[in-house]
What does this fold into?
Amino acid sequence: MATITYIEPDGTEYVVEVKNGLSVMEGAVKNNVPGIDADCGGACACATCHVYVDEAWTEKTGKPSAMEESMLDFAEDVKPTSRLSCQIKVSDELDGLIVRTPESQH
It folds into this structure.
């Protein structure tokens, strides 16, 4: 189980407990966190779960796969810390993770 903080562009925070093995996207959807639509259900096929990983966490979340990089081409306002939250699996190592949702998804 990991505590993940989702932050909206206006600074509103959602602190959520997410079970290990779920994705960061699933944690958001199950807890009604706005800004993460997940239209494709986590299949890495839509980019509606785009988040910015806090810089302190980029090494622990890893780099995007080639498929994820391709999908990020369809997202707006992509930054070096952009990830698709459906591709980040929750583990104890990610306890305290902070992600921000882009303005374009609100």
Observations:
- The beta strands are 2-7, 13-18, 50-53, 82-84, 98-100.
